[in-house]
Design brief:
single chain, 119 residues, mainly alpha, 6 helices, 0% strand, globular
Length: 119
């Protein structure tokens, strides 16, 4: 539902809520991806995945920047962490290792968006 909300609204809290839910999904993002894959022919699920790929295509895309805005930080490193977090959770797998300031994920960060591969 949050993916559909993000499509038509510019509310940073929607992105925060989505990232939070993905981060704390029971049994992890891979379990969620497996469940979505089983339902990928359903129009709402397919559209949600399309929206996520579009809005979170890289760290400078709409979704990651909305998470930065939600956290209201002026610290560049912290803003980069938030944008990477959103892109990693929701973006396309081709951007798993993208970081605009370092070219890679910071130590300890997970590339969980890769769980959505195969859609």
């Amino acid at each position: 539902m949050k993916a559909h909300a993000i499509k038509n609204r510019e509310k940073p809290k929607d992105v925060y809520d989505l990232c939070y839910c993905l981060e704390y999904f029971p049994d992890g993002i891979n379990t969620l991806a497996a469940e979505w894959k089983q339902r990928q022919r359903e129009q709402d699920v397919a559209l949600a995945v399309t929206i996520l790929r579009e809005k979170f295509s890289d760290v400078n895309a709409f979704g990651p920047q909305q998470l930065v805005e939600f956290h209201s930080t002026t610290d560049t490193d912290e803003a980069d962490r938030h944008s990477r977090r959103a892109s990693n959770w929701c973006g396309s797998s081709s951007h798993c290792m993208t970081n605009r300031s370092q070219g890679r994920l910071a130590a300890g960060e997970l590339k969980l968006d890769c769980g959505l591969r195969g859609f």
